Amino acid sequence: MTTVVAIFVIVAAVAIVVQMGILLALYMAMRQTANRMEGIAGRLEQQTTPLLSTANAILEDAKPKIAEITTNLAESTATVRAHVAHVTEASGEIVERARHHAMRMDEFVGSTMGKIETASEILETKVLSPVRRVQGIMAAVSAGLNILKAAKGNRKAPRHGHPMEEDEEMFI
What we know:
mainly alpha, 95% helix
């Protein structure tokens, strides 16, 4: 059993030495990586410091301008809203007036049409009807006079045709 313990102690000692070698190699690799990272960080800091200071100066210079632009934009927005409200109110009033005028125009046209119809009915009953009657009377008187004239012409001299045919020939 002592030999087994001795072998076990030797194997454990070798394992501890191997672990120590691995840890030493890891430590060295980490140290080398840390040195490279410090170098990169230093170069990065050198290169970005002027850029960051320029950007900071630009932002400091732009702060009042941005504040003014924001203020102007807010004022412009308020003005535009006020104008839009005014235009909306005015257009509503214009539309209402147009509707009112359209209603008045419709009433006017309807009233005018009614008056024209009434006037044409009055013209028909009071003027044209009596005119037609007078025309009928005139036609009857004219026909009576033509008959009398024809009868008077037959007594004076007999002509070579019928008196009605002569009247018809005059109209042709």
